[in-house]
Design goal:
This protein is of the alpha+beta class. Helices cover 35% and strands 15% of the residues. The structure holds zinc ion.
Length: 171
């Protein structure tokens, strides 16, 4: 039996529980946008009409979400001012994450609608760094040494990196 060490996988249980306890009609991302509730400390940066947060349930270190402050549920509801803001922030996030984490690639995208896997209806763009070696069933079963960054450390790194990148990009 191989001993498992330094294996930390963020649990979804607390998040699911927390979400389930929310009164109907209340939106977790609207709460973040308004700066209320218990998830505000996930916030990384704010720019224009958008907010960048750590993902509530990070798939990988550096997994962020970019979402509009106002509640929309479909990218077609974004107006002509919001589209270019989001495009800019998406590319800025790719730059920041590339510089901070040096991933091998990214997944970037939306889940629109519950059937597509959107657990939160409020539109949010996922930017997920991908690494050559990631946590998989084989890794877990083989007892591989896997270290996933502490979310508090991720937040600290990304807050600083985004603040710097946003400042530079404003000229
Ligand atoms: Zn909302």
């Amino acid at each position: 039996m191989v001993r498992r060490r330094n294996l930390f996988v963020p649990g979804k249980t607390e998040y699911v529980k927390e979400k389930a306890s929310r009164p109907p009609g209340q939106c977790i991302l609207c709460d973040v946008a308004r700066g209320v509730g218990d998830v505000v400390n996930l916030e990384i940066a704010r720019e224009g009409d958008f907010i960048i947060t750590l993902n509530l349930y990070p798939y990988n270190p550096g997994h962020v979400m970019i979402f509009p402050a106002r509640h929309v549920e479909d990218p077609r509801e974004l107006d002509r001012d919001e589209h270019p803001q989001l495009a800019r922030l998406q590319n800025l996030a790719l730059d920041v994450l590339a510089a901070e984490y040096g991933p091998a690639g990214f997944n970037v995208g939306y889940n629109v609608g519950a059937a597509a896997g959107a657990s939160i209806p409020h539109l949010h763009l996922h930017v997920v760094p991908r690494y050559p070696r990631e946590l998989g069933v084989v890794d877990v079963l083989s007892g591989a040494k896997i270290v996933i960054e502490d979310p508090v450390e991720t937040r600290r790194r990304l807050r600083a990196a985004f603040a710097d990148a946003l400042k530079k990009s404003r000229g």
